[in-house]
Amino acid sequence: MSSTPRDLVMNHPISRRDFFDGMALGLVATESPRGTAYPPGPFTVRAGAAGALSVPHALRDGRFWQHAGPPEPTGESYDLAVVGGGASGASAAREWLRRRPHDSVLVLDNHDGISLSRPARFGPQEDGVMCDRETFGSDTLVRLTPGWIARLPLAERARQDLLMLQRDPPDWFPGLSAEEKHERLAGLTYSRFLLEVCGAHPDVERLCRTMSCRAWGYDTRAFGAIDAWGTGFPGFGGLGLDRDKPSRFNSPTVKEGPAEAVPLPLDGRVQLRPSSPVVSVRDGASSATVGYFDGHRVMTVEARAVILACWSAVVPYLVPDLPRDQRRALSLAVRVPLLHATVRVRDPGAWRRVGVRRVRWTGAYWCLSELEPPSEVHLLATPCHSELGPDRGSVAGRQELFRTPFSRLEQTVRDQLGRLLGPGGFDPARDIEAITVDRWGHGRAPEYCRPWHAFYPDGPFPADAARRRFGRIAIAGSDSEPGPGGAVTAAVRAVEELAG
Ligand SMILES: Cc1cc2nc3c(=O)[nH]c(=O)nc-3n(C[C@H](O)[C@H](O)[C@H](O)COP(=O)(O)OP(=O)(O)OC[C@H]3O[C@@H](n4cnc5c(N)ncnc54)[C@H](O)[C@@H]3O)c2cc1C
């Protein structure tokens, strides 16, 4: 089914919501009359959200203090102030009170409602791949049932190459030891491995490119061949390597398996202060002074100890007194952006009729679409410009993510669901009831991985320098402990450093 923007009936009255890093950019509109521009006028941005987004950016760009008045003390004093109410900040507050039950604890966050909830995870295994027109010129949905490779709309040689890579690839590095093979793989991305080592037909690389997007937030042009081997991607069977014995070059998540960040829950003894982006933290003779923007002024509180559980890249702007090497190390922690849409549909039956539940797309805007019964559809897009690698690609992708109008996101959602489910009777104009978009500019915490981080695994690691304690200030946050479970590990370590 091919849909033009006109067919997609974007003016249809549905619920539309747009979030950036968990903060509402505003209800886009519940209705927009026919013939008016879409969206109908600028976003209406709530004061809390506006401050939350603009304050850190103004700090980064050096504009904030030009316009902010002098800080005003609130007169409050706490035993612990925590900056950032995510998994790590919540864990730090909870762990502190476990050790010091009678202390006073304040958690400040720039969200207008502190929430630990993250969007639903996408399931592990797709049951269909959409060889899409963006990649192959026309759409072909291939269900991943026996014989699926023969049904791929690829050149015959590409299908043969894929079969070979799946079933009986040769030893690409004969005569090398296991360690030497690991080292070779550690120097390549998976895309380069397919094209340059295996000499696979380019269609094979195009077909496989989005395989790493769900778990990593970038495609195989950024995903290391060593981690592709550790994950079980095709092409490595002839190397004679034992996947049960991970390579020292494998990233921590591949070595140890992904861990859910299970935050220690906050309890009623913790004071929460949402919509309060922190703008400065200064260590003093008897306490630290924490400044935050309340929407109008910079207010300050005093604290005997401070845990920074916000994004590491923000910390140098809050604590300019940090040593130069530490500030530089903190700024290297670049999070991978993610984009997630939740779509409420009127009738999910089209999925059953089309015969899929979770589909990977090879090159369209959204790389994954999945039905969550009874009637929610999740779509994932990965804004990272993978061709630039995870770090530079994430910076470029985040800028683009913030600039992309909701109308484009809605149009791509409608277009792709129409193309996928149209043969099952789905009509995007009739069957979509609500679209919520979560733009996670600072999504997945960074992880050290090859071939991008030559210091891995032998160190020294930027995170070692980044998380050094600075007087009464300790640094938590998952960015400071790259790898699975980093948010909670970092919180417990930071508490240990300050509370002993
Ligand atoms: C879509 C998505 C899916 C994910 N899925 C998984 C998963 O399945 N498994 C997994 O392990 N991890 C997942 N993650 C990563 C997950 O976010 C982290 O594991 C964990 O939540 C990070 O916790 P944190 O406390 O370090 O950071 P965050 O949860 O990002 O918390 C940091 C907080 O600091 C706040 N902040 C920043 N600057 C300031 C400031 N100046 N003042 C005040 N507050 C500030 C931020 O708004 C934020 O609330 C996912 C992330 C996203 C976006």
Give a description of the structure.
This protein folds into 3 domains: 1-42 and 126-150 and 334-444, Polyamine Oxidase, Chain A, domain 2; 57-116 and 263-333 and 447-499, FAD/NAD(P)-binding domain, CATH 3.50.50; 154-200 and 212-256, no CATH class. A 9-stranded mixed β-sheet has the order 2-1-15-11-14-13-12-5-6. It is an alpha/beta fold and 500 residues long. The chain is built from 19 helices and 16 strands. Helix 3 (87-99) packs parallel to helix 19 and helix 6 packs across helix 10 (225-231).
Largest sheet: 9 strands, mixed
- CATH top level label of the largest domain: Alpha Beta
Query: Tally of extended strands?
Result: 16
Round the Cα radius of gyration to an integer and report it. 24 Å
Amino-to-carboxy terminus distance: 63 Å
Any ligands, ions or cofactors bound here, and which? flavin-adenine dinucleotide
Uncertain parts:
28-51
What structural keywords apply?
500 residues, 3 domains, globular, FAD/NAD(P)-binding domain, 16 strands, 9-stranded mixed β-sheet, Polyamine Oxidase, Chain A, domain 2, alpha/beta, 7-stranded mixed β-sheet, single chain, binds flavin-adenine dinucleotide, 19 helices
Question: How would you summarize what this structure contains?
Answer:
Helix 6 (178-186) crosses helix 10 (225-231). Strand 3, helix 3 and strand 4 form a beta-alpha-beta unit.
Helices, strands, pairings?
Elements: E1 15-20, E2 23-29, H1 47-60, H2 64-67, E3 72-83, H3 87-99, E4 105-108, E5 128-131, H4 133-136, E6 140-143, H5 156-167, H6 178-186, H7 190-197, H8 202-208, H9 213-216, H10 225-231, H11 252-256, E7 270-273, E8 278-283, E9 288-293, E10 298-308, H12 315-318, H13 324-331, E11 336-345, H14 349-354, E12 358-361, E13 368-372, E14 376-381, H15 390-403, H16 406-421, H17 428-431, E15 432-444, H18 462-466, E16 473-475, H19 486-499
Parallel strand pairs: 1-15, 3-4, 3-10, 4-7, 5-12, 10-16
Antiparallel strand pairs: 1-2, 5-6, 8-9, 9-10, 11-14, 11-15, 12-13, 13-14
Helix pairs in contact: 3-19, 6-10, 7-10
Protein name: NAD(P)-binding protein
InterPro entries: FAD/NAD-bd_sf (IPR036188), TAT_signal (IPR006311)
